[in-house]
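Deliverable D4.2, example record:
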Amino acid sequence: MSTLSAPLVPAWRPSWVNSGTRQAALVLAASGALAISAQVQIPMWPVPVTGQTFVVLLLGFLLGPRLAVAATLTYLVEGAVGLPVFAGFGAGVAVLTGPTAGYLWGFVLAAGLTGVLATRGWQNRPATTALAMLLGNVVIYLLGAGWLAQLTDVSTALSSGVWPFLVGDLAKIALATALVPALAARIGGATD
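Output generated by the structure prediction step:
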C-alpha cells in the first residue's frame, strides 16, 4: 500500500532533480507547514492550542512514515537551532525541554504511526483513517501530558494539557479525515 505523496512531484523533471532532492523538498515543505501551523494558535498556559496536530496527523498519510518522521524531526531541529518555528515564534533548545516538549516529541511518533497505518491501507476508509488519527493523537497526549506531569503533577497535566484540547482535536481529526480522500482524488490516489 502507499501514501499520497508520489503524485505531488511530477514524473517530468530536470535531470539534476533526483529522488533524494524531491524527498528533501517534501520534508522541508512539511516542516514549513508545521511551523506555520504552530502560529495558528489560541494562547493558553502551559500548552497553547495550535494547528500543529492537524498537520502532524496528515503528514503520515501524505508522506508515509519515513518522510513524516523526517519532517517532524527537521521541524524540531529548526527550532532547536534558533529558527522561530515553535508556537508564538518560539525557538531554542529550552522549548524542547519545557512544558510543551512532550507534545513536540510526540509529533514525531504520531507522524510515524499514522504513516505506518496509511501504508497498511488505513486511508482507504474514513473509519480507519479517523481511528489512525485518533491513535496518533493519543500518542501526542501520552507523551505530552506524561512530560508535563513530570514538571507539575498528573492533575495539572490533565487539566491544562489534555481536557481543554479534546473537542478541538476531535474537530481537527474530523477535518483531516475528510481531507484524506479529497486529497487522494485530487492528486490521483495513493500510489507510493
